[in-house]
Amino acid sequence: MPTVSTVSAGRSASSDSLARSAPAAAPVALALVLVLSATTIALANVDTRPGRDFQLHTILLASDLALLALLVTAVGGLRRAIGAWPDHACALSGLAVGLAMVPAALVHPSDRGAAALLRLAGAVAVGLGVASARGEVRRLVFGAVAVVSLAHVAVAFAQRAAGGRVGLRALGEAQAVEIGGRYASSGLAVHPYVLAAWCAVAGTGLLAVACHRGAPSRLAAVAGVAAFGGIGLTMSRAGAVAGVLGLGALVLSTGRPADRPWRAPVAAAAAALVLGTMASLSGWVSRAGQGTGSVDAVSSGRGALLRQAWGLLGDHLLTGVGPGRYVLALTERPDLVELSSQSSRPVHLTPLLLVVEGGLVVVPALALLAVSMVRACRRGGGLAIAVTLAMLPFLALDHWPGPTRRAWS
Hints:
The chain is built from 20 helices and 4 strands. It is an all-alpha fold and about 400 residues long. It has one domain (about 5-295, about 345-409). The strands form 2 sheets. A two-stranded antiparallel sheet has the order 1-2. It has a two-stranded antiparallel sheet with strand order 3-4. Helix 5 packs antiparallel against helix 6 and helix 5 packs antiparallel against helix 18 (about 360-380). The protein is globular.
């Protein structure tokens, strides 16, 4: 969400002042968060009883410690960001969403809820840090994103070559997942779809940075191109749509003669997307064959998930079911569980997930966030629009960008 404001904030003197006054530890903590977010190293698991759905566990990740450090160093930056709110509207709107979730957390207290709010606050801190990055800090931040993207893609292609995991369990390499009857690469993410989301959003963002005058180095372009290759290894339809939308917007935004040098990276990214898809072509073809017939088949059962969500919301209009408690609340309603042939899981529509968990009080905050994103796109032009379009398919078809995403892992 906050990434949209990154491109548009570059012209603001107040943002430059914010970056110059930021504590020296904040950029290091931010880079550490970005690097550790590429892993799913679990430091503790509150519930390890056999047979329990992992979506009911509360897992402390190594990246959570980095998030805590970032939150401590970002307190002063938040105060200054509020003073320069036009340049940080997206991140501050994300903070408003988090605050709107607090009443639900108080009514339905849980350790998962506390973890979800902590991670949402951390996401806001990340957004503020990325949007205000300038000079050496900018190179450090986007260098970290580039390195993580390259690592993800390298591991993903190694997994494709091996037809399974490559022995990186110490870094949190996920269990093998078959999609379309074929192993789907997950890189170092918790699931292939999470890898697809990282590659689509980070890849588009890195190319947008590379296409912007005064960008850091060619590393952003190389990593951005590589990230699009990773999308094709995941068999994620949302990832494919996000990649096409992001690339399409980048093509339109680099149509001027002055932008000709950057057309090559965008074309290379399109070729990388095709290459990754061809490397997993049998899985894509098989999945396309499975997704025919009924609406539920085409949507992979998302219609049933929506009906479950509306059922839960009807019982908890004002206070929601509590952040991080969606799956737990669903298991307490066997009649709703029976609506889907799949195991209990969050609704794959992030705004609705937030409303079900936080209640109707979250709706105004989400509306504010939507307005802030539109405003950021208008200020940032085609490059900001490209990043937004790359994110939208996951907001509409999945649940990982919400505050429960990290709890889901």
